[in-house]
Specification:
The protein is mostly helical and 132 residues long. The chain has helices at residues 3-20, 24-35, 40-46, 53-81, 106-120. The radius of gyration is 30 Å and the shape is elongated.
Length: 132
């Protein structure tokens, strides 16, 4: 196995196919074909262990670099298809989203449910001192 040549071929093929993909499904399938458990690049990375020690380190480094480049290329292509670009500016001076504080107590929730049921049956709710 000529690992550098294999990695170069895989990189060129994957890049061309990513550029030609038109849908998210095609990109997902290509990602599986190249980076999945039985993908082309994954298989080539596993074959590095069969290389002589002198070539193994360089081939591993090159293979991991190609893997990272392809992963980035897939992410960029998916973002481009969904209309989002990585270069969108974020205005950090805008205030953040406010989160509601606290919650309704469970006893209060039950009382509100009971009131809703009884008002639905025609009863009214009166506030004030109890009748003796």
């Amino acid at each position: 196995m000529g690992a550098p040549n294999t990695f170069k071929t895989i990189h060129e093929e994957a890049t061309a196919k990513i550029a030609a993909a038109k849908t998210r499904e095609q990109l997902d399938q290509l990602r599986t074909d190249f980076l999945g458990r039985k993908g082309t690049l994954t298989t080539a990375l596993r074959e590095i262990s069969e290389l002589p020690d002198a070539k193994r380190k360089a081939a591993g480094k090159r293979g991991n670099t190609i893997k990272q480049e392809l992963d980035t290329a897939f992410r960029d292509a998916i973002a481009a298809l969904s209309g989002q670009s990585k270069t969108e500016a974020v205005d950090i001076t805008l205030p953040g989203a406010l989160y509601p504080r606290g919650h309704v107590h469970p006893v209060s929730m039950v009382l509100e449910d009971i009131e809703r049921v009884f008002t639905g049956m025609g009863f009214s709710i009166a506030e004030g001192p109890e009748v003796e």
